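Budget justification note: compute hours in this period were largely spent on complex prediction jobs such as the one shown. Inputs:
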Amino acid sequence: DAGVTQSPTHLIKTRGQQVTLRCSPKSGHDTVSWYQQALGQGPQFIFQYYEEEERQRGNFPDRFSGHQFPNYSSELNVNALLLGDSALYLCASSFGTSPRGYTFGSGTRLTVV
Amino acid sequence: EDQVTQSPEALRLQEGESSSLNCSYTVSGLRGLFWYRQDPGKGPEFLFTLYSAGEEKEKERLKATLTKKESFLHITAPKPEDSATYLCAVLDNNDMRFGAGTRLTVKP
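Corresponding output:
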């Protein structure tokens, strides 16, 4: 049973460019959350998608946007990249509103130069 | 503002030397407290969920406890393979908020 799959694993972009990260949730999960983790820090909540709608959003600018598809997979888009956007981007999946532990993917390491 | 604070930031132990990690939190509507283990370059791996004060969970050498304001992760007789960053998170409504983690190193 595949867990959470993220692609790509590594990415290098130039300041000002746009990037799209992808996530396939664990089988049976319908909710996807995205997190940004800077080096040496805990993950910071970006937003959560459920039933193809953004259900909740953390303190991130509108340059960060997302989408959830009917098969529950999700994309994270970041526009006008800044050097400070360099981080590990984690996708986590869960089932509905159940307060159980999320299953995380291994992340996408984004470097902005 | 809701906060999750973990201490210490880093902990170095000798193999077999037991210790505890702390997670203190202030949230308006706690729906669960979670402990994760994160290895370098990997995503967090779920360990425990605690829902109410007084609850305890155990898994191998790890034991998590919860009070109204903090949680402890007790590590008994740790081994080098327990070396990792341990993250605490609280679920406040639909928003899981993480602490900065404790980086644990266990030396043989």
